[in-house]
Design brief:
Elements: E1 7-11, H1 18-29, E2 32-35, H2 36-44, H3 48-55, H4 57-69, E3 77-80, H5 91-98, E4 100-105, H6 108-115, H7 133-148, E5 153-156, H8 162-174
Parallel strand pairs: 1-3, 1-4, 2-3, 4-5
Helix pairs in contact: 1-8, 2-4, 3-4, 6-7
């Protein structure tokens, strides 16, 4: 079985800064970085909004799980996942088994501020009017929390300090 120290999965709601944090963390550790959504787009040959609109969310989730599990043998890699990745199939259990999971936890208010201007490019927000966005985020986040809260490390806050994350990771590896 592979050591959990070889993979770090960054999870959290859309807009929580997973890709930014993942790139910074990989750079700090001297590891590779992979954005799961970009890998899905490469595999499918289309954008995520196109996959959702042409093939549906179920197809997207099947491809997502397949791409996620194809990364299990990677070494020293930080992977930023999609916001829904941990909440489908056995993805969260898989990530917990094969790597260290880090949940970037933001409040619904923080997420609303971040997502207000990017709803058009996010398939799950495409049909949510701006005035309904706070309630949508609150409900979706509450639903997903049962998966997110299983993460090995939970970091709260909007301005993530990568050095704190690195310290937490090192501490979790030695315990």
């Amino acid at each position: 079985m592979m050591s959990k120290n070889n993979l770090i999965y960054i999870i959290g709601f859309m807009g929580s800064g997973k890709s930014t944090a993942g790139k910074r963390l990989a750079s700090s550790l001297g590891w590779s970085f992979i954005d799961l959504d970009r890998k899905i787009e490469e595999r499918a040959g289309k954008t995520i909004p196109q996959i959702f609109s042409q093939d549906g969310e179920d197809h997207f989730r099947a491809v997502e799980a397949d791409v996620l599990k194809s990364m299990g043998s990677l070494f020293e890699t930080v992977i930023s996942t999609g916001g829904g990745t941990p909440c489908h199939g056995d993805n969260m259990e898989y990530m917990l088994k094969t790597g260290l999971t880090v949940y970037l936890k933001l409040t619904p208010e923080q997420l609303t501020r971040r997502l207000l201007n990017s709803t058009g490019e996010r398939p799950l927000l495409k049909n949510v009017p701006d005035d309904k966005l706070p309630l949508f985020i609150e409900e979706k986040l509450a639903f997903r929390e049962k998966w997110y809260s299983k993460a090995d490390i939970i970091l709260e806050g909007i301005d993530l300090d990568t050095s704190i994350l690195c310290s937490r990771i090192k501490a979790s590896q030695s315990s």
